[in-house]
Amino acid sequence: MRVLGVDPGLTRCGVGVVEGVAGRPLSMLGVGVVRTAADDDIGLRLVGIERGIEEWLDRFSPELVAVERVFAQHNVRTVMGTAQASAVAMLCASRRGIPVALHTPSEVKAAVTGSGRADKAQVGAMVTRLLRLSAPPKPADAADALALAICHIWRAPAQNRLQQAVAENRLQQAVARQAAAVKGRTR
Amino acid sequence: MRVLGVDPGLTRCGVGVVEGVAGRPLSMLGVGVVRTAADDDIGLRLVGIERGIEEWLDRFSPELVAVERVFAQHNVRTVMGTAQASAVAMLCASRRGIPVALHTPSEVKAAVTGSGRADKAQVGAMVTRLLRLSAPPKPADAADALALAICHIWRAPAQNRLQQAVAENRLQQAVARQAAAVKGRTR
Q1: Fewest Cβ atoms closer than 10 Å to its Cβ: which of A34, A77, A120, B65?
Q2: Cα dihedral angle (B103, B107, B108, B109), rounded to 10 degrees?
Q3: pLDDT tens figures, B150-160
Q4: What would the pLDDT profile of A110-166 be if each residue is shown by its tens digit?
Q5: ipTM of this predicted complex?
Q6: CB contact under 8 A, A83 and B88
Q7: Which entry of A7, A39, A107, A144 is annotated as an active-site residue?
Q8: Record-annotated residues binding Mg(2+) 2 (chains A, B) (predicted)?
């Protein structure tokens, strides 16, 4: 399966595409960062993130988008921007009927390094090894996005097809419900 | 000027359109709530919010969208959903080149009631009076959206046109920058 991992952020939003199945060597199809200028208005930054994510979805047609689950507990100053960037990534995927999976930072670290408390360097080193790259992807956000995609492929091998079918079905239902609601209102 | 106020939320996203200028009686053009089902996936809920906001933008063509500024400090459990819904509202507006203004809950309360600590009932009562409605808009999220729009019209009478010009200009610049970046990458 082909997974786009997204490490959400307004200044640097890491993106990485990994293909493969659990138990076999994985391949990296692409890695990068969607950047927006810190001095731009928040609305324009979100438009920039949307454009960037759309470009990656167009280019790689992933079957699933894995996004880091954002918590409000830590880093209060940056968490709002992270939540907003992740909302845009989830919106872009769901709009196309692509299922979205959320994984916590410690799930991702544990999946690729064996420890939920691993540091950035360790995650980067394991991503490099697992994808047989010549050097760790930079910046760390890009490596984290690849780690998210790897984590998803390894954690949910059986669940993924089911999840995709459910996502497509739910999107159709939601569209039908909203169409019915609009019809009701304009009567 | 015509302002769409948005009180962001995933379950109930209040929306209200107010027209007028500071110092003159204001008119309500529309009020409502965009709802999404709590048991839907987060991605689909964001798609539902997007559809709802787009519908209001299409219907009323506001010159500005006023959104409640979300803080991470309080209500940790709901704040992430609020941040995500507000991101979608800001994205929808900015994509069209419509400027976005953020106001804190206490700025809004102070603008319509004279006290930054006013309760929901007081805000509802003042919105009813200021817009000459027959009854307070329900639910409270709808009244809060109208209060946001009123707050914006009263707080920034001179600033608004400037802000609109700046937003349009910045959108053009951002589009040009991104086009240049894509061009650079594909060379």
Answers
A1: A77
A2: 160
A3: 999 998 755 55
A4: 999 999 999 999 999 999 999 999 999 999 999 999 999 999 999 875 555 666 677
A5: 0.80
A6: no
A7: A7
A8: 68
Domain ranges of chain A: 2-186
Per DSSP (E only), the strands in chain B are: 2-7, 12-19, 27-35, 64-68, 100-103
3-state secondary structure B91-129: HHHHHCCCCEEEECHHHHHHHHHCCCCCCHHHHHHHHHH
Which is it for the CA torsion A107, A108, A109, A111, positive or negative? positive
Q: Chain B residue with minimal CA distance to A56?
A: B182
Chain B residues in contact with A59 by the CB 8 A cut-off are none
Contacts of B120 (CB under 8 A, 6+ apart): B140, B143, B144
Catalytic residue among A55, A68, A119, A144: A68
Token digits for B63? 């010159």
Give me the residues paired with residue B30 across strands: B17
Question: Which residues fall within 8 angstroms of residue A136, CB to CB, at 6 or more apart?
Answer: A124, A125, A127, A128, A143
